[in-house]
Write a structure and sequence with these properties.
heterodimer; A: 109 residues; mainly alpha; Cytochrome Bc1 Complex, Chain D, domain 2; 5 helices; globular; B: 486 residues; four-stranded antiparallel beta sheet
Chain lengths: 109, 486
């Protein structure tokens, strides 16, 4: 069972990260929070993870990390990814950012 | 719960390992020895629903720009120079039926010609000036050429760019000589330091230095143990002193400048850019400029700096060499620990740099741009930007090809969306994907009616420790709405 779980995660987790609008359509943002999260993403994340795909940094869209893990990594950083403390990204903006990242992940799925 | 949590932790760890990028760079140009023959297939390019793309002309050598005369006919410039120190002949070409071209005129061995605009009955070309310095040229339809401005400091990493014409003025960009204001071993690797050993960045106004110096091997002498110490805005091997003032002048490095379409003195518009490659005016007169962010190379590498879209205001300083994206490069995010963390080169900043309109992919080389002005094409007011694509590993390492597409930016929100990309599970140039799609988009321009977006594709530029451009692989594409009249 354990290996089945891990295998399933691997298959899901290493699928394509492309969520390019010409390929899968635009993300269907359902709330003002997600639209705000999109703007935050464009200011802080998009340059290294263009559209949530790999670029300078690894992809986001094909990683099944839950919201709490995403928030932890944004706050603490990881490797060469910078940390974004409260002074740079307030709690509400972080919540909205994660909502957008999750929406983007499921776009076209 | 604990067992499930254990599965989750193990799963996440395995995922992280399985998907973790290897240390080796995976840039789009890192294609090795592949066929030099370029296949072109519009079917390999994806666009939003309702749009279509076609290849109008192939076989171009290093094309960099497209413009339309007052009859609506298309003209293309070929650069005459490409990274890797490959010199050819700059040319202005008139597109004819069937993808043929007539040569309007040829330039001197002083490329790269980095773009073309049409206004007031003539073409205006930014001559990059790798050998003799940058110039702005006025070329009539029958090929008569006049030099409007010369002496731009273009013999280094970056060149004279643009142009864009408005109200009788020719606006152009001027890139910096170096990555981050310090001439170093990377300048020798690019090929220009031995040719122009005294070349360096020139500030547009007086700047006071902090006295930061950088000691490297000296590639100008045969002794492998010889070293040189170099300060900012100074020739290679010349150290700086704290409080030293470097005098500003115009023309200068990292600036947007302008000259009257009839000729005259060069005026400074704004400065503090790194490589302000693309310039475009909106219908209401705002000047949008793309700016290539820092590389992770040379004596003062800067990590993770985005390319930027600026809304340029006259007299503004935009931050180079001490700010990236409006943020000081002394922030942790731009360095790799205290040893290589970039330090401020200026003792006092010339101004307060603003934030960009949009943050584009690190190393995406976001270059030529235009603004949609037609409801028939759609996305009125949005900015379309051609992304040449990364030049890893020279500019720094990447985990995946970056750029190699056209993106659309909503300038009010800064939201970026892909507009023209290659099909497939991975992003990248056609040569890496093995398809007939886009290679290195460098410029976009709407036709005079605003209903067709022309896309200049530079062609194949392979990368290892240096650049390897392939002649005759450039393409001119056209994107239109399906069913639109031409």
């Amino acid at each position: 069972m354990r290996w089945l779980t891990i295998g399933t995660l691997l298959v899901l987790g290493c699928g394509t990260a492309r969520r390019s609008e010409p390929l899968v359509g635009p993300p269907q943002l359902a709330s003002a929070e997600e639209r705000h999260g999109q703007r935050v993403f464009m200011q802080l994340c998009n340059q290294c993870h263009p559209g949530g795909d790999a670029g300078l940094a690894p992809p986001l869209n094909n990683k099944p990390a839950p919201a709490g893990v995403i928030k932890l990594q944004v706050r603490k950083g990881l490797g060469r990814m910078p940390a974004f403390p409260e002074s740079q990204l307030d709690g509400r903006s972080l919540d909205d950012l994660v909502s957008y990242v999750l929406r983007l992940r499921h776009t076209g799925r | 719960m604990r067992r499930n949590g254990g599965y989750g932790a193990v799963g996440m760890a395995v995922l992280a390992l399985a998907c973790m990028p290897r240390f080796r760079s995976k840039g789009g140009g890192e294609i090795g020895e592949r066929s030099a023959v370029r296949r072109v297939s519009a079917a390999d390019v994806a666009l939003p629903p309702g749009y279509q793309i076609e290849a109008l002309a192939t076989g171009l050598t290093f094309p960099t720009g497209v413009a339309f005369d007052d009859r609506g006919e298309a003209y293309v410039v070929e650069s005459g120079y490409a990274p890797g120190e490959v010199f050819t002949t700059p040319r202005l070409l008139h597109l004819r039926e069937g993808g043929r071209f007539d040569v309007v005129t040829e330039g001197e061995r002083n490329g790269p010609w980095n773009g073309v605009a049409w206004a007031d009955g003539a073409f205006f070309v930014s001559e990059g000036g790798e050998l003799e310095g940058g110039r702005i040229l006025r070329i009539t339809r029958d090929g008569e050429t006049t030099v409007l401005a010369s002496g731009m400091p273009s013999q280094g990493d970056h060149h004279t760019d643009g142009p864009a014409v408005r109200d009788g003025w020719v606006y152009f960009g001027q890139g910096t000589a170096t990555n981050s204001a310090v001439v170093g071993e990377d300048s020798a690797a690019f090929g220009w330091l031995k040719r122009k050993p005294a070349h360096h960045d020139v500030p547009c106004q007086n700047v006071t230095l902090s006295g930061q110096n950088f000691t490297t091997k000296n590639p100008l002498t045969p002794d492998p143990d010889d070293q040189a110490t170099t300060g900012a805005f100074l020739p290679f091997g010349t150290p700086s002193q704290p409080g030293q003032v470097v005098r500003g002048q115009v023309p200068c490095s990292g600036a947007v400048m302008r000259v009257r379409a009839a000729g005259g003195p060069i005026e400074l518009v704004a400065w503090g850019f790194r490589n302000p490659y693309g310039l475009a005016f909106t219908p209401d007169g705002r000047l949008f400029v793309t700016d290539n962010g820092f590389d992770e190379r040379g004596s003062r590498p800067v990590f993770g700096a985005a390319d930027m879209l600026w809304d340029v205001k006259p007299g503004q300083w935009y931050g180079w060499p001490d700010f990236a994206e409006g943020r000081p490069v002394s922030m942790d995010r731009y360095g790799e620990g205290p040893i290589t963390q970039p330090k401020m080169l200026l003792a006092s900043r010339p101004g307060e740099p603003p934030s960009p309109l949009a943050y584009l992919g690190v190393h995406s080389s976001s270059d030529g741009l235009d603004v949609s002005r037609s409801a028939a094409f759609g996305h009125q007011g949005d900015v379309f930007v051609a992304q040449f694509g990364d030049q890893a590993p020279v500019v720094g390492k990447v985990t995946n090809p970056v750029g190699f597409k056209v993106v659309r930016i909503e300038p009010d929100s800064g939201v970026i969306a892909d507009f023209a990309v290659n099909r497939g599970k991975k992003n990248g140039p056609a040569s890496k994907l093995g398809t007939g799609g886009l290679e290195r988009p460098l410029a976009v321009r709407f036709d005079p009616r605003g209903t067709a977006l022309y896309l200049v594709d530079f062609g194949v530029l392979a990368m290892d420790s240096s650049a390897h451009p392939r002649q005759g692989t450039g393409v001119l594409w056209r994107i239109t709405r399906k069913g639109a009249a031409r």
